[in-house]
From TrEMBL:
Top-rank taxon, per record: Bacteria
PANTHER family registered for this protein in UniProt: ALDEHYDE OXIDOREDUCTASE MOLYBDENUM COFACTOR ASSEMBLY PROTEIN, MOLYBDENUM COFACTOR INSERTION CHAPERONE PAOD
Species of the source: Oryzicola mucosus
Protein name: XdhC family protein
Record-annotated XdhC Rossmann domain positions: 77-218
């Protein structure tokens, strides 16, 4: 690989940004494409699919052969609240390939014996995010029912462009939450991105079933990222 391309690619990977390396097999010329860059024609469709799926491989486009090498950051799930839903959701998410971290300053909830082998951070979200910033490959699920914990984190997730932002609570609770987030400067488009009530509507009746609904919604959002219409269709 061209050392300059390799340096660029490694920079994107360190910053947890997606990139696709396209190699023209006719002459070995390479091109690094960052997520969000426009690529026209049939090759553009192939590249867009690589960003959605993370799959690499050979492809034919514009009467030429290319090797598409997709480099996507591993998606991660940040749970706000060490509650029963989180106890069920954390192991499910790990099996699905989403590393989980739980943030809850209420130390009575964030106890290691309740969450074996799950990273727990008993600090406020403001402190955690300053040390480990959110990004477009992070999903944030707020399940504390505590505005003092959830509101800042939800606004930060929206500002960071997290691919999924969900919040537990009834429609009445969420309406009040939206007003608070507006006062923090959230735009109408940002507020429309919040999945609330959280999770797919599968009639979930207990914490484990809610966890299944949330994980399914997270996966749908990840696979449809960049296509808001598709996200709404899958999560409606």
């Amino acid at each position: 690989m061209d050392p300059h391309l390799l340096e660029q690619l490694n920079g994107e990977r360190r910053a947890r940004r997606a990139a696709v390396l396209v190699t023209d097999l006719s002459d070995g010329a390479g091109r690094l494409i960052r997520e969000g860059e426009m690529v026209s024609g049939a090759l553009g469709e192939v590249v867009a699919r690589a960003f959605r799926t993370g799959n690499s491989g050979l492809t034919e486009a514009e009467d030429r052969s290319f090797f598409i090498n997709a480099h996507l950051p591993q998606p991660r799930l940040m749970l706000l609240g060490a509650v029963h839903i989180s106890q069920a959701l954390a192991p499910m998410a790990r099996v699905a390939g989403y590393p989980v971290e739980i943030v809850d300053p209420r130390t009575a909830f964030a106890a290691e014996d309740r969450f074996p082998d799950v990273p727990l951070d008993p600090r406020w979200p403001e402190e955690v995010f300053a040390e480990r910033p959110l990004d477009a490959y992070t999903a944030v699920a707020a399940v504390t029912h505590d505005p003092k914990i959830d509101d800042f984190a939800l606004k930060a997730a929206l500002d960071a462009g997290c691919f999924y932002v969900g919040a537990l609570g009834s429609r009445k609770t969420h309406a009040a939450r939206l007003e608070r987030l507006k006062s923090l400067g959230a735009t109408a488009d940002q507020l429309d991105r919040i999945a609330a009530p959280i999770g797919l509507d599968i009639g979930a009746a207990n914490p484990a079933e809610i966890a299944v609904a949330v994980l399914a919604q997270v996966i749908a959002a990840f696979r449809a990222r960049g296509n808001a219409a598709k996200v709404k269709e899958k999560t409606a």
